[in-house]
Amino acid sequence: MKTYSEHLKTTQSFGETIDPKKKPVMRSSAIFPVMTTIDLDSRVSFMGYWLLKRHLKEVSILFTLRDEGGSILQRGLKTIDEIKCHLVSVKEMLEQADIQGVDANHFTGSLEMEIFSTRDMVFPYPAFVLNYSGKNSSTFVHTAGRVFNDAEDLLENNAVQVAESGFDVVPVPGFLPYFAFVNGTQGIESQEIGIELINYLGEKSKKTIHLKNVKPYQTCYIFPVESSELGFFKENKGTVKISHDFKGFFPRFIAGNFNKKDSILTLTHTFYDTINHVDESAYWQNDDTENMHDADIFFPVFLDGKNYTELVLYPIYSPAHLSLDLEFYDEAGAKISSAKNVASFDTKDTKPLYLNLKDHLVSNTSLDADTISKIKGARLSFDNGGRIPARLKFGLNVGMPGVYDIPTNICFNAKVANPKILSKPGTFKWAPILNTAESIVIVDNASFEKNYDRTADVAISFWREEDNTSITRNFTLQPFGQYRFDLKDDKEIQEFIDGGTGWVTITSPNGLINAWYFELFGNGVVGGDHSF
User: Which pLDDT band, with edges at 50, 70 and 90, does 99 fall under?
Assistant: First the structure.
């Protein structure tokens, strides 16, 4: 793990001084564990954003499909010289390759995508989306794992060795939690993975998983909880910590819950467990506590009908005692309700904190159901005397109970009080419209400033697979306001993307714009993630 301050420097975040010795990124890559069944496909969606964001004329992408043991099945090279959208289907790759002994409807393996450029791409990980898409669900997550570019890349990302955690075990019959990765270039003769199960009461159960003879590029789907162990979670959500010593690849695991019978794989990713990271590099200093919260998050909520939104704080943060202040806003940015000290979280506690926003509103306000349904955004702010853990990651669970109750479990981070960001000259964000269910994109305007009052003029452009054309719309967001796009209600964009996938790009002269995207499947399985 890099420290947060080093992460800002190496990604050339706004206001950071660029190290003149920094090696340019000419290769950017992602490697995905993939699985197919009769009812499930693994797909990767992306757009040619390098041409817009980095002003490159073209990049080349090398696709490598491997089987579970790491053997290469297929390779292909493609030049990306248009901004348009792209979709790669593992099933289609397997069917077109027609490899003897490989069944496109029963496959486990990996898909690596390497991007090559003659100019610095800055980020060694590209903006791709892995989508597990099937007849019963559509879930997705952004690029997580990759094989390191070189020894320098490896050393930078292993400066601090930590465990991975930060995803939910759901208490739904038929589902088991999993995490998955693709090994790097070196085989693993033997390694022990420490597993720590944590239930909602903070009770722990430890076990060890032994890996032996893992080949280079081998795909590993690991199930840390057996069916007989689910009782430990007492019919409530819980989490898992994963201690490892992997070094040859970036060990950010995809994770979620798997229903084998119904071919449902939910998707999120793990994050650093920094509970033992206690030196000064683990903290962020707020030098203007009068005007800025130490950290702040603003996120969309769905509270109408049976829908719920739940925020999760995991026991993975560097030691601190966090007090949570909460505000609720409608779509236009008008404040509906607020409360101080709605909860506290001591990061030394072993249990995750699940904050159900509808339960809070019903129990602690006089708002009626109609008013609660008009709430579209929530702001959670943290003040800890000007010193707060720099790595604050949360889970965002948007739930819409149906046949199942499987919420999003989006992994996202807080905005710490970084005054440099306040003078950032603009925003460029992008996100997919996967168009496998009800596709929603949400854009918001929020800040860690205590009295934030900046409006934002925003342009959103819609792109498609067919060609390089786009449709652009303009709107203005008030502070803490939102723009909500729902594909099912927009005939023009439906006709424009013509049954395929799309992407949106979002630009604004306000540097504090954020975005989210969702797929609402209708049966209670909800896919979601934050934008790039």
Answer: confident
> pLDDT of 254-287, one tens digit each?
999 999 999 999 999 999 999 988 889 889 999 9
The answer to whether the CB of 233 falls within 8 A of the CB of 200 is yes
Task: For strands 353-356 and 308-313, give the pairing.
Answer: antiparallel
Distance of alpha carbon 465 from alpha carbon 485, whole angstroms = 19
| Cβ atoms of 446 and 379 closer than 8 Å | yes
89 contacts 95 by C-beta, under 8 angstroms: no
User: Which has the closest alpha carbon to 409: 181, 165, 173?
Assistant: 165
Chain CA centroid to CA 274, Å:
18
| Tokens coding 147 | 């094989």
DSSP state of 233: G
Q: What is the pLDDT of residue 348?
A: 78
The string of pLDDT tens digits covering residues 172-191 is: 999 999 999 999 999 999 99
Calpha distance 170→230 (Å, rounded): 10
Q: Where are the beta strands (DSSP E) in 331-384?
A: 335-346, 353-356, 375-382
| Average pLDDT for 423-451 | 97
Q: What whole-number distance in Å separates Cα of residue 71 and Cα of residue 75?
A: 11
Angle (CA) 264-173-363 rounded to 5° is: 105
